[in-house]
Write a structure and sequence with these properties.
The protein has about 200 residues and is mostly helical. The protein is built from 8 helices and no strands.
Length: about 200
């Protein structure tokens, strides 16, 4: 079972590593230490569910309904534009504090972060193509044990990547606590989100 596991891990990692809206979102929250564990956990669990469902055969059904993917594309683009606008507006106002890296211990903030993470993960049509369709079709080619090993490898890749990215960036956050760096992070995040919004539409 080592081969299907390693194949699932390698392909899953290759699909998720390229910079995108989701990775930018994760990196942004990790650098600001704004509930980075929750963000990484939600992203990893979403991937785990989508990959498992795709390997089970749902991916082939979804690929036949392009209207669903099209709807997700425009909803995702609208969300990315709003997120980019807020990030750039915050950078323009330049209201940052050096102590702003500590997590805000309010349930409403946690809920907002989790909801934003779910939206930025699930409204991106690329995530369905990568997990449900592509990884799902590859994993479905194996027999029962091999299918489970492939799925486990792909899911493990998501957990390793998101938590590695999160805690690697969190380590750097101690060196990026100054307001000028926080402002720069928001500017870069806003520009990337704008670019991906346009990419989704075009």
């Amino acid at each position: 079972m080592w081969f299907p596991f390693s194949q699932g891990f390698a392909i899953g990692l290759g699909m998720i590593i390229p910079i995108g809206a989701q990775n930018t979102f994760v990196l942004n929250h990790a650098l600001k230490r704004h509930y980075p564990f929750s963000v990484a956990l939600v992203c990893s669990l979403c991937d785990a569910i989508l990959i498992s469902v795709g390997v089970a055969g749902v991916g082939s059904l979804l690929s036949q309904h392009t209207g669903i993917i099209l709807l997700a594309k425009y909803v995702g683009a609208a969300f990315l534009l709003c997120y980019a606008g807020f990030a750039l507006l915050k950078a323009w106002r330049n209201q940052y504090e050096s102590a702003g890296l500590s997590e805000k211990n309010t349930s409403s903030s946690v809920v907002k972060v989790i909801l934003a993470t779910l939206i930025i993960t699930l409204v991106n049509p690329q995530v369905y193509l990568d997990t449900l369709v592509f990884l799902g079709s590859l994993g479905a080619q194996y027999a029962d044990d091999g299918r489970l090993a492939f799925t486990s490898g792909a899911v493990a890749a998501s957990f390793v990547w998101f938590f590695g990215l999160t805690y690697g960036a969190s380590f750097l956050a101690t060196k990026l606590h100054q307001p000028k760096y926080q402002r720069g992070i928001d500017v870069v995040t806003g520009c990337i989100m704008f670019w991906f919004a346009g990419y989704l539409v075009l």
